Structure formats: C-alpha cells, structure tokens
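To close the chapter, one final illustration. This time we ask the reader to focus less on the individual chains and more on the assembly as a whole: which components sit near each other, and how the overall shape emerges from the parts.
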Amino acid sequence: MSLKQNEIRVIEVGPRDGLQNERTPIPTDVKLRFISSLVASGIEEIEATSFVSPKWVPQLADACEVVQGLSSGPKFSALVPNSRGLTRALECGVNRIAVFTAASEAFTKKNINMSIKESIDEFESVIRQFRAEVSDGWVRAYVSTAFECPYAGRIPSKAVCDVVERVLELGIDELSIGDTLGVAAPKEVESLTRDLLSFVSPEKLCYHFHDTYGLAVANTAQALEMGVTSFDSSAGGLGGCPYAPGATGNMATEDLVYFALRTGIPCSIDLDRLANASLEILESLGRRPQAKAQVARLALASETCPK
Amino acid sequence: MSLKQNEIRVIEVGPRDGLQNERTPIPTDVKLRFISSLVASGIEEIEATSFVSPKWVPQLADACEVVQGLSSGPKFSALVPNSRGLTRALECGVNRIAVFTAASEAFTKKNINMSIKESIDEFESVIRQFRAEVSDGWVRAYVSTAFECPYAGRIPSKAVCDVVERVLELGIDELSIGDTLGVAAPKEVESLTRDLLSFVSPEKLCYHFHDTYGLAVANTAQALEMGVTSFDSSAGGLGGCPYAPGATGNMATEDLVYFALRTGIPCSIDLDRLANASLEILESLGRRPQAKAQVARLALASETCPK
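The assembled structure is written out below.
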C-alpha cells in the first residue's frame, strides 16, 4: 500500500444519517449541541439535516430550525429529496445540498418509490432550480447500494458507472458512493474504484461505507491507496438505513480519525473531543458506545485492564 | 491490492487466548464442547490450552484434561511457557507447542518477568527437549508487542526483526507476530511485513492482530496482499491480554472468515456454524456478542430492521 500523504476529508453525516431513524423525538437543541460539539472537535463538513417530508421522517421535521441554529464557519449541507424539500431548504438559506439515488432499481423502488431514471429526473429539476437561486451553491449526489442491494443482490460495477455517468451530466460537485449494507470487501472497492476513476476525478469521489461486517476501515484504506481521500462517517457509528435489513451503522468517525492519525495522515480532528461529542449524543439516545476507538478509550480510562 | 487467491489459514486461539483471562472458572466440558463446535464449523487448527502454572492462571489448570479430551483430526496445539510446562504437556501427549516472547524488553519484564534474551534462552531449552522427545513435533513462537508496547511505546521494526532472527535460529516451524495492543494501522503492517519477508518465508509468518481500534481486518488485508496467508483469530473476538491495558480483544474469527469468503478466498469454515459456536461460549460466559459478522447475523435474523 502506498498511501498518499494527503489530508483526509471527513464528511460527518451523523446529525442527518445517524439521527434520522431514531424513533424517540430528539429536541432541536440536543441536535444543535451535538453539531456544535462536532465542530469544536475540528470537523469541517457536516450534513446537518434533511428536508424530507416531516410525514415520512418526523424526526427531521425541525430541519429548518436546525439549519437556522447553525454557526458560521464550517460547511453544512442538507439532504433534499425533491422540489418541495428544496423550496423549504432555500427558504432557510441552505447553500449546500445533497440529492439521493441508488445503483439498484429494486432499491430506489422500495426506498423512494421511483425508478432510478425517475429519481435522476427528479433531482435534475432540483439541481436546476438550486443552481438558479444559489450562485455559489454546492451539490452532492448519493449513489447508494453500489455493491449490493438487499432486494437485488450483488450490483455489477457497470450499473454503478452508468448511474454515475448520468448523475455527473447534471453538473454535481461531488459523488458519495455508498456501501449501504456494509457488506463489501476491499477487493470489490478496488474494482469499483478502478472503474470509477477511469472517468471521475478522485476529488469528486467520496465513499460512504457502513461497518456492518467490520470492513469499513479496510475499505477506506483500499480507496485511499487508490487516491480517493473523502469519506463519509458518523460520530459514534450512529445510523444505518431503515430500508436496508442488517445495515447496522455507518463507519464511526472515531474509527476513521484513529486510522488517519495512526497512519500519519494529517487530520485536523481531535479524537478526544470527537469521542466526547459522540458520548454526549449516545447518552441522550440511551445508546451504548460501539465505535471501536471509543470503546478502547473508555477501557483505558476506566483501567478495567490491570496496568 | 492484488490479493493472492490462496486459501487463508485460520489459527483459532479462542480456547487458550480467549478464555485464559476469564475470572469465573469454566468447566472443562464447556471448553471441550466449545472446541468441538469450532471443529464442526470447519476450523482445522486450534490452540487449545496453555501449560502455564495453575497458580498464575487457575483458569487453565485443566490443561491436561482438555488435551486428553480432544478429538483426533484437527491440529491442536498448546502454549508452553517453560520447562515445567513442557514436562506436563509431554505427559499429556502434546505434539504441537507454542512458545512466547516479545519485541519489547519492558513487556517481557512485566509480563513474564524475564528479559527478551532470558525468555529466548528459556525456550531454547524447551524446544531442545521437545524436539528430542517428539520426532514429528511442531513449534510456533509468538513475538508479541511487535508494533507498540504499553510500557515502552512504539517498537521499531528493527527490534522485531532482531528478536525474530534469534527465534528462527532455534529451528521453529512458525512465527506469530502480535499486535498485542491492537493499535497498528495497515501502513505499519506493510512496513514490518516488508522487513520480515526479506529474511522469513511467508509460509512461516503468521499475524496475530487484535481489534482494539477496529483495524484487525484492514491489517489482515494488508498482510494478505503481501503474501502472508496465516492469521490467528479468536471465535467471538474473545480475549485480550491482561497485561496490556486497553487491549480489548483478538480479531474475531467470524470477521476474518466473512472477509475471506467475501473476498473470494477459499475457506473451509462455515460462518453460520462458527457463529453458533461463539454464541454458545459467549452465553456460558454471560457475554454479549461483539464480532461484527455475528452482530449483523443476529440483526438480520431478528428482523429488527424492517424488510
């Protein structure tokens, strides 16, 4: 492995992807405190919320309040599923949006009740409207189930590349390629990355790994070796997809940051402050820590293991 | 990554390394049932117990009973810390032994109260006696703290290579190089592996990774890429070193096997049967599953995530 010594770019998705499936309502001020603790740890890019219909995801009904409570400085974005969501997002002053599709027809159908083509058509009009209204706007496109779909099984690399090509034509700033189920092994990441990098610049490419089978960091190391330096992760490993059975969580930001620091990759994030931010939100949610770097840190601090 | 398509060799260390630190006594028949379930899952090499002094590790006082209760077929080995342990092991008919040293002086001093040289001298006489009595005997040597020591910090690759050279002169069959704290990143594994492979054949080299920071499988992928195909792991991720603060467990065999199977590496181990073997022993110990592949499997089975 010949790791590039570039800084790694961490896109924190915990406040959106991590919290969206929580059933108990989380007060807006708890969300904002979480985001503010993440910022204090040195995280510079955060997907803060989603302008999905409050009927579908009541947890994110406060999207506008969250956006309006954000500090200035870091780069905050919001997921925007459709034109109606965009209208709300624009009203709150959002200038970085994320749109969503998948590499599997069966998945878009079940997840957002559209074909892949319909979802891309939908966000073509979202992007057009957004670009018209926000001159310095930034658009990220998620392409999920890029390795395997819970309904259709393995997804061929060609299917991913086809969707990516169509998405790129819409003039997006960044792609986030998701292993939604967290099942892929580094060899698959190698193969897909090689295919993607034949027509996508590495600066536009970002991976969104889930750690279901403990392979998220191994997959990150693989992608990094090939020149991809942007990775989504979620503080505390919060999240997962409610429509993807067995997907037990995003790569934990703690584990990603530990990996980067130990590898000697410059990273502006303070692991201790990040771990404290995670502990705080986990406590609010009544959850146990699961990020390996967090569990190790707590074990060391408690000295349960004799010195 | 250009993965070799060799079979991966899994050396299961759970029954020894996983159980040695359990405070509550585990009945011998529970240990034997665990081992027999592991064998039924397709595991072919198991470190079954340790002939350490029962005064130091009461949990393994039944080493002889365990060895005498083993089936024939799989390759079973036992850790032998000194001549007294070897005498006991030979009386029970052990024909595969493991000896133990470290790359850090501070660690051998604290862990076994010897300098590295003393520990190697000790096992030189152990190996001589063993070879004299067991004509078809097999010897593995552990070199622990190969990346970092809880007392001395980072361990330079040269220190590891020096110890390995001395150990190889004793005519051992296999080395197991340990990331005892589970802190190393793939880049360090790359560097040490390169140095080791300059004078050790890959068939003699085995890694023993801990998953403290979630990097065990990433490190395995790195070593595999470089031609090392033998890895220690522990069913359910049981174990860790009582003298290594923060070392929260071995790489889980489930995670290693999932990685191998998903990568397309032939592996004779049945993941479902293996996971059941782990569940059984975890239940006996009153422990929650922690191997990612196990947690994912249970989540899928319970359908907590809506289909």
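The beta strands of chain B are 9-12, 45-50, 75-79, 96-102, 138-144, 148-149, 153-154, 174-179, 205-209, 230-233. Chain B has a mean pLDDT of 92. With these observations in hand, you are ready for the problems at the end of the chapter.
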